[in-house]
Amino acid sequence: MKETVLDLLMFLFENYMEDEDRFPPQNERAGLQVKLLEAGFDHDEIEHAFEWLEGVLQQGSVGGAEHAQAFRVYSDEEQAALDVEARGFLMQLEQIGVLSPSARETVIERALALGEDEIDVERLKWVVLLVLFAKPGEEQAFAWMEDLVFEDAAVLH
């Protein structure tokens, strides 16, 4: 099976970032790249994953006015990548306060940046987790999401 960028990001989080409070800084990435190559990941996928992480950090620093009553209309591209169940999951996370509107936008943008044709809810949970990990002030939402991701993973195994 060909590993995807999200698979690599999941591996990276579970093995190198789970006990950290931030993404690996630039000066640590060369060592991580060697470890990921040794683990069997492709060089291009590793580069794409690090670019993806940089995109999360850049999106995380962009702030805007939060509108609680805003209604989100998905583009055709977003609807193709995120099915009704995935979009409903995002809406639910926003309604219960796990995602702010700006975090939701970052999740959607980063989900599309993975370059996958379709992202199911289980994979979307990982995107949400990684985005919340990178956003300052989202520690409580991250902890809730981490419990959800790892609780679901335990049930699946």
Question: If you had to describe this structure to a student in words, what would you say it looks like?
Answer:
- The protein contains 8 helices and no strands.
- The model has no long low-confidence stretch (mean pLDDT 85).
Entry keywords:
157 residues; mainly alpha; globular; 8 helices
* Shape by Cα distribution: globular
| Overall mean pLDDT | 85
Q: Approximately what portion of the residues adopt beta-strand conformation?
A: under 5%
Instruction: State the secondary-structure class.
Output: mainly alpha
State the order of secondary-structure elements, H for helix, E for strand: HHHHHHHH
State the end-to-end distance: 19 Å
Beta strand count: 0
Which regions contain 5 or more consecutive residues with pLDDT less than 50? none
**What Rg, in angstroms, do the CA atoms define?**
15 Å
Number of helices: 8
The percent of residues in helical segments reads 55-70%
Mind summarizing the main beta sheet?
none
Give the arrangement of secondary structure elements:
Layout (H helix, E strand, L loop, with lengths): L4 H13 L8 H13 L4 H18 L15 H6 L2 H12 L5 H13 L7 H14 L4 H18 L1
Helix pairs in contact: 1-3, 1-7, 3-6, 6-7, 7-8
Would you summarize the structure shown here?
The chain has 157 residues and is mostly helical. It has 8 helices and no strands.
